[in-house]
Amino acid sequence: MMQQQNANSYLFGGNAPYVEELYESYLDNPSSVPDNWRAYFDQMQHVPAVDGSNRPDVVHSSVIASFAERAKQGPIRTVVASADSELGRKRVAVTQITAAYRYLGSRWANLDPLQRQERPLLPELDPAFYGFTESDMDTVFNITNTYFGQETAPLRDILNMLRDTYTRSIGAEYMYISDPTEKRWLQERLESIRSTPTFSAEKKKHILERLTAAEGLERYLHTKYVGAKRFSLEGGESFIASMDEVIQRAGEKGVQEIVIGMAHRGRLNVLVNTLGKSPAELFEEFEGKHADDLPAGDVKYHQGFSSDITTPGGPVHLSLAFNPSHLEIVNPVVEGSVKARMERRGDRKGKEVLPILVHGDAAFAGQGVVMETLNLAQTRGYGTGGTVHIVINNQIGFTTSDPRDARSTLYCSDVVKMIEAPVLHVNADDPEAVVLASQIALDYRAEFGKDVVVDIICYRKLGHNEQDTPALTQPLMYKKIAKHPGTRKLYAEKLAAQGTIEADGGDKLVAAFRDAMDAGKHTVDPVLTNFKNKYAVDWAPFLNKKWTDAADTAVPLTELKRLAQRITVTPENFKPHSLVDKVLADRANMGRGDVNLDWGMGEHLAYASLLSSGYAIRLSGQDAGRGTFVHRHAVLHDQNRERWDQGIYLPLANVSENQANFTVIDSVLSEEAVLAFEYGFSTAEPNTLTIWEAQFGDFVNGAQVVIDQFIASGEVKWGRASGLVMMLPHGYEGQGPEHSSARIERFLQLCADNNMQVVQPTTAAQIFHLLRRQMVRQFRKPLVIFTPKSLLRNKDAGSPLTDLAKGGFQTVIGECDEKIDASKVKRVLVCSGKVYFDLVNARKARAVTDTAIIRMEQMYPFPHKSFAAELKKFPNAGEVVWVQDEPQNQGPWFQIQHNIFEGMEDGQRLAYAGRAASASPAVGYADKHIAQQKELLETAFSKLKGFILTK
User: Fold this and answer.
1) pLDDT tens digits for range 171-193
2) Contacts of 317 (CB under 8 A, 6+ apart)
3) DSSP 8-state secondary structure symbol assigned to residue 646
């Protein structure tokens, strides 16, 4: 048996030579081995040598060489090991078994309320594995490398302390953390109390009251609204006790705002029993009553809510984020909202604002946005001072409870090991352990500003929803569940047995809660109704406004020149790259009005003017600082810097004395989580111009869930306004299927109810006025900008500085060539974006004089009056042709033709010129691209063909 165990151990068997080699390297240079092994070997150095001395170990190679030399000199006399030698080996073994429990104890922890799995074979946790027998149990060993509160203890006690700490109702995982300080902190918190809570009688009664509220609400709804979907929490009621503890303890530590993100499981329970939503309001929703001010609305288990509750540290504002059924997608939205609230408070470390994310076990392991969001946790632009993650681990994902199908990891929480977040697995049937784990988690976050996980292992009493019959696919699991009396009942019986409550105390609490439900009373006491948070944002000025509301976006010429000067100089002794030097010199000329502005300068002046006026700016995306196409240069790098983290200069952060904050972030390589983060930020901060820029617009479909569920529909479903700006580089320049199209058609398909703005500006002045309009006008809707690529440096797309000092954003730009006689125009080409310049050049090359060109700069909301006015300038034009770069089944054509048709006069004919329908956004061969481009231009000026619609 011992041979078999040795063969399977991570310290013995086939790994032994590897471990020996690591130890040899450690003795030679401790920094040469991984941190976890170094920590383990460090502990071994405190173990006395076999002779009882405290001399440190030495490199073995020299000792081995010495023995080899002596062997050459003749036979070596064998010496029998002394008793001291055996004692020394056992001392080492005590250190080894301590490390084994810290590493592996969670595998033996009593975590499953259903007791469905047998305890795995783990030789390292068996004292016999190290050669210990019953005769060793009373031997006293040194345990100064632990936090049990004593320097020595008999082996029997040591083992009991290790088992109590690591294998009872809490299974802790943290030994993969590389920071020794964090590991020691966790060891001390767990080992000093043996992972066993010692709560007062009042605390225990409060826990029981929370369990009663959680169970009572579910059972009340189950009988009052039979068969109605609510995604019950039954089987996981300890979660409510956990939430209560985290919130109350956070308030005690100075947290003033908490933003919660969670899916539908248990959401109604959180609304009533955590945030204090009136049960009467919830009952009205079950009965079909709803607000009439939302065009669409949403189901009750997607609804958000906010309230203010009292804590030992003062009032805390709670916000439950609205969430679609896409489960984990709310995670980055919450983080973005928290970041905005932190910045508003000047809370750089997240001491005053706390994110709590609640997960289901299957979604936590299964959805990629979890990993993407975790990857943001410790970055400068997205960090929120640590998130408390709570997993409602009911051990079944819809119908999947077989671990062979559920995931490829041991625990559903293993993904968090990528950021070294500690995990506290806890048995939901031990609510005191759940509360203790929640305390430790919150304290860890407060101490280190990092993520932490409480994995509450429970069960799901009912089906995925209340109309489901789970026994169809999980007969064995649901036989066990049917016999389970419930966490509340078990805990009430325990407290009664302890004498903490009377024998019928639990039943009295149940009856009292049901009476409160009948009366529709609050279950959270007290909920503050008149508390005013000085950091709260008033959205009222931005609501019920029209996109046509006027906005003065022009900036006086003298101010433009001042701003231009400020953003084109660098500090003394700062040496930009020679190419950047030229860009700054060119921009200085533009700022003096000597030459036309290019796109980058128009964009910069928009930012500078907004910052100077008190509007903060947050710009993020892959390559956002430099710009994918090297056009922005918002971040300058000193070519003579000597340290990697120095030598950075942001001209836009140095515009004015009391300017607003300018933040630019080169994001992680993610679309979904980063875009969702920025959306969340924008919903919490209307006074910041929040921009997300795709590296190429083509990649935005990696975030389609965010666009569909939040950006396009968040306001009509939930009343959540957002002024988020999306910059999506778009244009057909022969770069292939993944570097041409931001899928304009998809955004236009989502447009309705004036839910967002879709634009494709073509000049420097247009981007200037557009960005300013987004903030100056008190109108907050998402703004989708299809930004150019080749036009960034196209002189025809430039604008004189004076265009920024007058006018505003033009939704439609009419014919610009004064040589075109409006009365002789027979055909009007209507287009958007880069193709306009291709058409102008083609018209000039063909010497065409009877064709006018109109640019649609804003495609939604469609500017009907402006478009019709431009079209009427050509009374003899019998033909209107929509021209686009994109294939016919893509681009704006199918979404915009009815709007164009509406603006036409009777008798006019509408036709299409562009690429043929295609399954791919663009071709990948240069010669084919050129041929297609040539053909679409030819079609634009040739006789009408194909689809023709006559008004």
Assistant:
1) 999 999 999 999 999 999 999 99
2) 256, 257, 258, 306, 307, 308, 533, 536
3) -
Contact status, residue 442 vs residue 388, Cβ threshold 8 Å = yes
- In the three-class reduction of DSSP (H, G, I as helix; E, B as strand; rest coil), residue 746 is classed as helix
Q: Which helix (H) or strand (E) holds 882?
A: strand 879-887
Q: 3-state DSSP call for residue 314?
A: strand
Q: Quick one: which of 46, 41, 180 has its CA closest to 99?
A: 41
**Contact criterion met (CB below 8 Å) for 428 and 236:** yes
DSSP conformation class of 707: I
pLDDT digits (tens, 9 = 90+) for 97-145: 999 999 999 999 999 999 998 899 999 999 999 999 999 999 999 999 9
Q: Shortest CA distance to 103 belongs to which of 122, 118, 131?
A: 122
Per the listing, tokens 């029998």 go with: 80
3-state DSSP call for residue 780? coil
For 156-195, the DSSP string reads HHHHHHHHHHHSSSEEEE-TT-S-HHHHHHHHHHHHTTTT
- Span 565-607, pLDDT tens digits: 999 999 999 999 999 999 999 999 999 999 999 999 999 999 9
Q: Give per-residue pLDDT as tens, 357-416.
A: 999 999 999 999 999 999 999 999 999 999 999 999 999 988 888 878 889 999 999 999
Under a CB-based contact definition with an 8 Å cutoff, are residues 742 and 799 in contact?
Answer: no
DSSP 597: B
CA distance 692 to 674: 8
pLDDT greater than 80 at residue 526: no
DSSP type of residue 118: P
Strand 314-320 relative to strand 353-360: parallel, antiparallel, unpaired?
unpaired
What are 79-95's pLDDT values in tens digits? 344 567 888 899 999 99
Contacts of 517 (CB under 8 A, 6+ apart): 216, 217, 220, 279
Coil vs helix vs strand at 759 = strand
**431 is written with which tokens?**
């609510």
Type and span of the H or E element at 883: strand 879-887
SS3 state of residue 373: helix
CA-to-CA distance for 627 and 694, rounded, in angstroms?
10
The string over 884-914, giving b where at least 16 C-beta atoms fall within 10 Å of a residue's C-beta and e elsewhere, is bbbbbebbbbebbbebbeebbeeebbbbbbb
Task: Yes or no: say if 447 and 186 are a contact pair by the CB < 8 Å rule.
Answer: no
CA distance from start to end of the chain:
90
Strand order in the sheet with 353-360: 170-173, 423-427, 452-457, 388-393, 353-360, 257-261, 314-320, 305-311, 527-528
- Four-residue CA torsion sign, 799, 804, 807, 810: positive
Any idea what DSSP says for residue 499?
A: T
Model confidence at 687, pLDDT cuts 50, 70, 90, reads very high
Q: How far from chain centre, in Å, is Cα 14? A: 41
Four-residue CA torsion sign, 365, 367, 373, 378: positive
Taking the C-alpha atoms of residue 60 and residue 163, their distance in angstroms, rounded to an integer, is 35
Of the candidates 244, 259, 261, the residue with the CA atom closest to the CA atom of residue 312: 244
| Residue showing tokens 């960034």 | 792
- The number of residues making up the chain comes to 951
